[in-house]
Amino acid sequence: MSQLSELQCEACRVDAPTVTDDEIAEYRQQVPEWQIVERDGIMQLERTFTFKDFVQALDFTIRVGEIAERADHHPAILTEYGKVTVTWWSHKIKGLHRNDFILAARTDEVAK
Ligand SMILES: C[C@H](O)[C@H](O)[C@H]1CNC2=NC(N)=NC(=O)C2=N1
């Protein structure tokens, strides 16, 4: 399978299908540190990154915001002293789309 982070995001459409269990199993191989959580019936992809202090956490937050804007696909981000929790899901389909796994992989890249 090609590198998730290099795939193109599709424009978010209300009729887009959520990922299948098989797709989740396939994609998770490339983003193994991410948890799948369900909130208000919505499946989400979540990971907490740790940092030395708040400045590093904020710098990472900005980098995540930049990749989100470039893709026009946006996460929920909780920025705290020394840690940032990033949560991806597709609002329009109230669930997980391949876009979320692509952006999770890109998030891992900007965390390095
Ligand atoms: C108009 C704009 O393109 C859409 O609202 C985009 C913006 N960013 C988005 N981000 C996420 N995570 N899900 C969406 O459905 C979504 N839709």
UniProtKB/TrEMBL annotation:
Enzyme Commission code: 4.2.1.96
Domain of life: Bacteria
GO molecular function annotations of the record: 4-alpha-hydroxytetrahydrobiopterin dehydratase activity
Pfam families, A to Z: Pterin_4a
UniProt keyword Lyase present: yes
InterPro entries membership: PCD_sf, Pterin-4-alpha-carb_dehyd, Pterin_deHydtase
UniProt xrefs under Gene3D superfamilies: Transcriptional coactivator/pterin dehydratase
Catalysed transformations (reactions): (4aS,6R)-4a-hydroxy-L-erythro-5,6,7,8-tetrahydrobiopterin = (6R)-L-erythro-6,7-dihydrobiopterin + H2O
Class of enzymatic activity (EC top level): lyase
UniProt keyword list: Lyase
UniProt keyword Glycoprotein present: no
BP GO annotations: tetrahydrobiopterin biosynthetic process
Family from the record: Belongs to the pterin-4-alpha-carbinolamine dehydratase family.
Protein name: Putative pterin-4-alpha-carbinolamine dehydratase
UniProt source species: Halomonas campaniensis
Lineage: Bacteria, Pseudomonadati, Pseudomonadota, Gammaproteobacteria, Oceanospirillales
